Every structure is written in structure tokens, then in C-alpha cells.
Amino acid sequence: MGLDLTGLGGVSSLIETIANKIWPDKTEQEKAKFALMSQELAGELQTRLQQMITNTEEAKHASWFVAGWRPAVGWVCAIALGYHYVLAPFFVFLLHAFNVSMGPLPSFDMGELMPLLTGMLGFGALRTYEKIKKNGNGK
User: How many structural domains is the chain composed of?
Assistant: First the structure.
């Protein structure tokens, strides 16, 4: 069973090309692919750990301007999410229930909000953990 590198996109094809040229033996190729991918994942993990340290230091800062920007963005995301999925549908229901004719409620592109929100919630780090765990099992 080969190592699944599909989640790495262009990096996986580069790793495969390098491994095929250096090690013609399939077993050696698999070992080389795994070693290269392990190095890449270790680097990504190190980057994320450094970001967590930076975030912790920012949160400790005495200035509200430095320590408060992350919670402010979080509240903006929470309010936008609540409006989009709870308040707007409820208002539309009420307008229809009371037969009130009105133009459409303001809306926005959730495709722009969700990457920001998931990044703030740490789902990017969760994906890194999944990749490490998946590749560590050899599946």
C-alpha cells in the first residue's frame, strides 16, 4: 500500500518526482516520500506553534489595542454568523407571517466570512493534526 500524498497538492508531485529519480526501488521511494513529508509536516507544525506563542503574548499585552483585536474580530464574526443564520431568517419569517411587503434584507457572502472564522477557531491546526495522524498510520 502506497503513501497517500493527495492532500499536499503540488508538493506531493514534487516529492514523488524527486523520490522516483533518486530511488528506483519502490520501498526506498516510499521511505523517502515519508521522510520528506514528515519534514514538511514538522515545519508546518513548528510554524503553527510559533503562531500560538505569538497569540499568547499578544493576549497578555497591557494595551487593549494589542490584546483586544482578536476578540473584536471574533465578536464581529459571531454577530455576522448570528445575523446570517438566525436573525435574518427569523425576520423573513415574521415579515411573511404578518404579510409585510419589504425588499430583501441585507446579506453578505458567507464564503468570505467562513475562512476567517474557521481560522480563528483553529480548524487549520486541526487539519494539520489530521494529516499527521493519517500519514502516521500509513493510510
Answer: 1
Range of the domain at 71: 6-136
- For 15-67, the pLDDT digits (tens) are 777 777 776 677 877 887 888 888 888 888 888 888 888 878 877 888 877 77
Residue type, 103: G
Q: First vs last Cα of the chain: how many Å apart?
A: 8
Computed from CA positions of residues 3, 8, 14, 18, in that sequence, does the dihedral angle turn out positive or negative? negative
The grid coordinates of residue 26 equal 519502490
6: Cα within 13 Å, side-chain hemisphere: 4
Task: Report yes or no on whether pTM surpasses 0.70.
Answer: no
Count the neighbouring beta carbons within 10 Å of the beta carbon of residue 11: 13
